[in-house]
Amino acid sequence: MSEPTDDTTIPPTLWRKRAWQAALLGGALGLAPCGVTLWLALSWRDRLPVRIINHWDAVGIADGSATLGQFLGVLFGIGGGCVLLFSLLIVLLGRTAAARRICAACAAGMGMFMSGIAFVSLIPQLDAVDSLADMKLPTVGMLLSILVALCYGFIINQLVPADPWQPAIEPVLPDAPRSDSLANTNYVWLQTVTGGTGTTLGVFMAVFIAVLGIVLGAVLHSVLLVALLVPTGIAVLLLVYGCSQFTVQIDATGLRARSKLGWPKLVIPANEVLATEAVPTTGMLDFGGYGYRINLKGDTGIITRDGAALKVRQTGGRTTYISVDDAARGAALLNSYADRARTTA
User: Fold this and answer.
1) Which of 129, 136, 207, 273 has a C-alpha 20 to 30 A away from that of 160?
2) What is the pTM of this model?
């Protein structure tokens, strides 16, 4: 199939402006908690010991220390670096609102997480009179830091604007497959896609993490490992469950895909479709994994298994891949509805 001309009523480079805006938002709101925590830590320097406890063993007993400068340098070097990395990814890959939202949430969430780790580590050491050699790892504080960072990232995710409406001006590619006979009957194409390789790998990973936490916790007598790894395994299992089944619908309005839990979901209006075709996909090679994915080209994918997928090229330089059965019929029908959307606009 020939390459579509990306002519729209909105300049196709608009995504770059929105990517820079999202990068500045995610970066600023990621660095802000780092700056506040850094200021607090420096204001506490006279109340903190010369050597800060910064490491604990498997059972949660302190076994390492550093100066305040070293402690803050490592934490905020990693945190600030991650914030800047995700902000850069927004600029490079942020063609879609999904990519911008995910990366902005990661940038802000990582900054908040590192700030939380620093805060809960320093608070117990303020004005310490006794030896800190027996200081226990602040497990509850660490878990709260993770929870707060996740909530903060979700809020930032919602602050990033959705993609604007970008109707195409040029017709659908003439050599794109069509199914006018079905389109003329207002046919609704509906597919329920269940997970394959991706779901199997995800379940295995979730169970492995949870069992690892239980085994290591029992062997090392560490409540910390159980408290961290078992909830992580459960969270991964819930995520896998949510992305293990998608309902994909194509009708005169366009394409809609929705997970079993209702999120993530995807909507592609028919008048934004430049061309659709059925293509083979391999989750690990094309997207680095399975589920709701974004690859290094900035393409969005709902990849539940290897095999046939819809490849939908949209205005604004966006491309979406969706694993489905009967992909050829779905592609032809969506192209026909995209033709109709041009004539009725």
Assistant:
1) 273
2) 0.79
